[in-house]
Amino acid sequence: MEHSAGQVVLVSGGSRGRGRAIARGFAERNAKVIITGREAETLAATAAEIAGPSGTVDTVVCDVAQTEDINRLVATVIERHGQIDTLVNVAGVNQRKRCETYTPEEYDRIVNINLRGLFFLSQAVGKVMIPRKQGTIINIDSLNTNSPLKGVLPYAISKAGVSMMTRGMASEWGPHGIRVNALAPGFILTDMTNKLWSIPKMQEWGFTNTPLRRLGQVEDMIGTTIYLASKASAFMTGQVLYVDGGMSAGTQWPIDLE
CATH number, domain at 109? Predict the structure, then answer.
């Protein structure tokens, strides 16, 4: 499975944006891909669009905030495909507000999807990986765990939890041959963020603070995810890889060096 061919890969939040690109990357490498999301119609359209040489991408409707959905999802995948080799946890939500204005309902929605759902989906998949003594789990972390941005505190809190979960599961499940790593993307252009990054002030700030002087594309996440799912990273677990154009490398300040 050096290049993902033949792997059974489950991608939560695989119908849009980053999850869609990652799912397509695996499908193009002949993996058996299953994508999840909350909307059956969107899932079906995405599956038809990203199917690679293997010809099909499977879909299962699942709201990761609901443990009943998670249990049904894992049971369905095992019934249809017999195993899960790689789980990619992409499903997540965010809401920009001042921290003093979040309601309990808004906070719970963000944390329940981003952290609680991710934990219980990983737990359910881990239970079927443990008897096989192999498997890979890849979580989507965030730049916010390196340096939290203003206006997204519940999101940053949830992603800090993802970092600790990645390390904790790696430690506990390593003896079972299961590797757990995370990928922390920088600012990635998606359908949901295009409006924000079309603002000239934001573009200037993003370019200034990213050493590679560009914003990320969803395709920039594919290579690292494939690597983490492959034998090339066989001795790597409990790690967070920043795919951020260098933004976490240091603070950029307006001094011209001679």
Answer: 3.40.50.720
In a domain, 256, yes or no: no
> At what angle are helices 117-129 and 67-81 packed, to 10 degrees?
30
- Cβ contacts of residue 103 below 8 Å, gap of 6+? none
Range of the domain at 78: 8-243
> Active-site positions?
155
Instruction: Answer whether residue 1 shows pLDDT above 50.
Output: no
What is the distance, to the nearest Å, from the Cα of residue 163 to the centroid of all Cα atoms in its chain?
12
pLDDT confidence tier of residue 3, bands split at 50, 70 and 90: low
For the stretch 66-84, pLDDT in tens is 999 999 999 999 999 999 9
How much is the pLDDT for 192?
73
CB atoms within 10 A of CB 85: 20
250, part of any domain: no
Beta bridge partners of 182: 139, 240
Confidence band, pLDDT 50/70/90 cuts, at residue 94? very high
Strand partners of residue 33: 9, 57
Within a domain: 147? yes
- CA 89-93-99 angle, 5° bins: 130
Outline where DSSP puts E strands in the chain. 8-12, 32-37, 57-61, 86-89, 135-140, 178-185, 188-189, 216-217, 240-243
Neighbours of 70 (CB within 10 A): 23
Amino acid present at 82: G
Total count of domains within the chain: 1
